[in-house]
Amino acid sequence: MPTLLMCIDAPMQSWGVRSHFASRDTATEPTKSGIVGLLAAALGIPQNADEEIHHLASLRMGVRVDREGVLENDFHTVQNVPNTEGKNHRTAVTKRFYLADALFLVALESEDRHLLHQLLTALHQPHWPLYFGRKAFPPARPIPTQGLPSEHQSVTAQSLDHALRTHPWLENQPRVKNRPHTTGENASPDWLRTVVDADPFALDVELRHDFPLSFNPQQRSYASRAVQTGHVPLTPEMISSSTA
């Protein structure tokens, strides 16, 4: 089954899952709702187009963490915040979390190759600006993977699981990329964490409440999805064929 591959790289990213009022959290990897929102912006799908949003959310998604981010937080001042009756406006301080220096490979699998190519074209020429959770967090490099051997292009014939195991490492920081990773035949390899959509009846799954049902500002709603967390080895082949 063909797979669309995306590079999610930025100095700062925010993938909220349980944000409420004065505290805005972030997951430690891209959420389903965050990636669907990114694709919807690229295609120009409005927030109230629930059927189209659900169609994008039905794509099977997997994330490989090529560089774990550092959880940071800052404070924002919000003015003219009303009380529950819409009166007594005040100034509020909100605490917002984000990931710094994180890097992800995101894979989307579908039988509909035409849709994947449509998404690829939209990511190259997005209808609306793209950002990772906040408008101040734009991509650091093109989202479609590029500059790689033909079998690892942005839309590949490989399955999602195979792509996560074999796709070249996206790391491009020399201080990280050039350090020794494996030495000798018996050395233990480095491992990259993965989070993949899974059968809800499978063993060792957990629920993530980030499957978007509607992005309508008046009635945002989400459902839970089952994911399986695992690890794939960072092989010498993945390092030697990684991007510059």
What report would you give on this structure?
With 244 residues, the protein is α+β, with helices and mostly antiparallel strands. It has one domain (3-71, 99-171, 189-240): Alpha-Beta Plaits (2-Layer Sandwich), CATH 3.30.70. It is 20% helix and 35% strand. Strands 1, 2, 3, 4, 5, 6, 7, 8 and 9 form a 9-stranded mixed sheet that branches. Strand 4 and strand 5 form a beta hairpin. Helix 1 (32-43) packs across helix 2 (50-57). The longest helix is centred in the N-terminal third of the chain and has 12 residues, at 32-43. It is globular, with a radius of gyration of 19 Å. It starts with a strand and ends with a helix.
Please give a handful of descriptors for the protein shown.
globular, 20% helix, alpha+beta, 244 residues, 9-stranded mixed beta sheet, Alpha-Beta Plaits, 6 helices
Cα Rg: 19 Å
- Percent of residues in helices: 10-25%
Write down the domain tally.
1
Mean pLDDT: 88
Q: Which residues sit in consecutive blocks of at least 5 with pLDDT less than 50? A: none
**What characterizes the major β-sheet?**
9 strands, mixed
- DSSP helical segment count: 6
Secondary-structure arrangement, i.e. CATH architecture? 2-Layer Sandwich
Output the CATH class name: Alpha Beta
Shape: globular
| Structural class by secondary-structure content | alpha+beta
Order of helices and strands: EEHHEEEHEHHEEEH
Termini separation (Å)?
28 Å
Number of strands: 9
